[in-house]
Amino acid sequence: MDLLHAQLGRVQQHLSFVAVDPIDWKFYVQVFSWTITIFESYLLIRQYPLYSKTKPPEALANHFTDDVLEKSQKYGKDKAKYAFFSGIYKQVLDSSILHFGFYAWTWNAGGTIIAKFGYGPEYEILQSIAFVFTLLLLSSLPTLPLSLYSTFVLEERHGFNKTTLPLFVTDLLKQWALGFVFGAPFLAAFLYIFQWAGDRFVPWLMAFMISFQLIMVVIYPLVIQPFFNKLSPLPEGELRHRIEALAGKLRFPLKHLYEIDGSKRSSHSNAYFFGLPWSKHIVIFDTLIQQSKPDEVEAVLAHELGHWFFAHPTKMMAISQIHIFTILALFPAFLHAPPVLRSFDFPKEVAAQPPTIVAFLLFQMILTPVEAFTSMCMNAVSRHYEWQADRFACELQDRLQDEKMEDMGERLGRALTALHVKNLSTVWVDWLYSAYHHSHPTLTERLKALEAFQAQRKKKTT
Hints:
Blueprint: H1 2-14, H2 25-47, H3 66-99, H4 102-115, H5 124-140, H6 144-157, H7 165-197, H8 201-224, E1 231-233, H9 238-250, E2 254-260, E3 271-276, E4 279-285, H10 286-291, H11 294-309, H12 312-330, H13 332-335, H14 338-343, H15 348-351, H16 356-366, H17 368-394, H18 396-400, H19 408-423, H20 431-437, H21 443-461
Parallel strand pairs: 2-4
Antiparallel strand pairs: 1-2, 3-4
């Protein structure tokens, strides 16, 4: 532990200039954030002409009718226009919040709120909780029209929205309530570790955050998700039999198999699994069951079980922990840096002893360009894992010595195509746009890869 702290101390020595140099951090954040917004707008401009194509890619020519392609292209155009406008709108909003010193004002507002309950500025954790939730509430209000438009105009226009206005409002209130119920204790514990451990907070905070993530894996589906969706045991029948048999052959620790009422809000479909290593739960959207045949849903689940087989969720979690560790290792230099707060319009008396939550929030904004690059790298890793999971499905016959699995790759291809057709997903995608935004390969890429995987497997067996 002493060796770790010694190395972290050296990092802080290299960053000691942050605490003394009067750098205009607000200006840099403005430049960085606008640069990213302009880059994302450029990507949309690159992507937009592809929505005018009237023929699908050659690999999809037999799967997309002219009518489906036309609907998909129109949906893509509308989403691109919305993304372009909403991106600029949110950036103008964020830029205005920075320019007019909204963060400093909100910190003072948090102090005023707790003062009404008899607590003074010495109660930093209470003021921090009031600050965070006031900031989140006030900053989210201007974006509500975007959410309403996306749900009741964009998704409605293309036949996907199933949400009613009362349900939308109820969901929003539930999200805020649950955010406070779970977020306030988390934030209090998060900040208490800083107070208790001092500058040696990194390993303790890492342990706390990993523990919290593992607890949420259990709590979310059992406690939080039922507030929004109903999880019901998947009815007896061919689909349940197929999935249970496949899980048994792979020794997947399946504890529960659920159907979720995703159609309550949207026509989009999905499937996923969650749980601890020794107890897994599979969840299938009712829309997926309605839109696909049992053997195709089985193929989708075979792909998901490929992620489990190769421990992709665990690997992604490990990568994210390395990322979090790196951020926390850099943070102490900004935690004790009055010039950083002063550049964001905080008064001298607050900047002299920077509140932890304020320093951390500003530090996150300073890291904006790094986080954008990190996101692209994570997408690249995720796409690699998708290839592996697709290949796993294709090779199931060889792994299980089961002739019934011989056409699993073909079934997965049909299922992916059906999902794209039903969801009106984009079939023409610019490579740079995809690299930045997509965690999954495009449908064309996946179908070509599936054909290649199956050809390689057949070649090995002959």
